[in-house]
Predict the 3D structure of the following.
Amino acid sequence: MALYEPHFMSHTANRGTSGGVASGDVTAPGPAPHGSLTEHGALRGQVLAGGYLIRTAMPGDAEALAALKLATFRATFLEAFRIPYPPADLALFEAESYGLAKVRAELADPSHMTWVVEKVGVVEKNGMVEQDNTPTAPLIAYAHIGPCKLPHPDVRPGEWELYQIYLLPTAQGAGLGKRLLATALDYMTAHPVIPQAGGRIWLGVWSGNAKARAFYVARGFAEVGEYRFPVGNWRDDELILRRDAAPA
Ligand SMILES: CC(C)(COP(=O)(O)OP(=O)(O)OC[C@H]1O[C@@H](n2cnc3c(N)ncnc32)[C@H](O)[C@@H]1OP(=O)(O)O)[C@@H](O)C(=O)NCCC(=O)NCCS
């Protein structure tokens, strides 16, 4: 099932948006690469087949996003990969990484960007499918980017890092991850933090996550290093990947 053909017309009738969105509009092109979320046009988004909307996250998403971050972390590392984190380390990590205060701070940080995916209402009108931006379910996926913090000697100031891209298990395998990653990559390519940084994009991935590693390599990333990611006092073996230029 393909979810991602962006052929919908969209209305942005709800939640204080400033205007409509053209069919297939790419998320979040704003006048300034690091303005506030509202400057990015928070409710502009890319509507995908099936009524999925990819849009920039807003401060009001903090609670739902914190819950989604926690749920997808647990689904990936506890339920799927069954990493035996000691409970105290896990509790510390989850509170620090996915607590509401942390997520609120990330959403307010003008050097970060987060996109979320939600299912929105759709209506058929004159043979055209339209959507009205009324969320019909909680958030199902997100991608979060910001300045690169990875411990690699070649990281240069002003380079982007894809911090996280996570889908709920029920949303995986249908093309949504590809669309969400493309949205984030297109944004980072179009908005270098400082132009002379050269457009490189970094990310870290758990070494045992074969699907994600293949997903990134297929989209131009190469493994360039490794490090140990702290989960409390536990350490996950992580790989560092970098994309040097957008594939032609
Ligand atoms: C990794 C993730 C973002 C990919 O998103 P997705 O929507 O599941 O993947 P898509 O359907 O867009 O497919 C992306 C690619 O993965 C491949 N793929 C899909 N399901 C797969 C599976 N079960 N096993 C292996 N490859 C798979 C697809 O073939 C596709 O590649 P291709 O079309 O270039 O051949 C998503 O699965 C996810 O959130 N996983 C759990 C969290 C995670 O690991 N995040 C990354 C942490 S670094």
User: Anything to note?
Assistant: The beta strands are 9-10, 45-48, 52-56, 113-125, 128-135, 141-147, 160-167, 201-206, 222-231, 234-243.
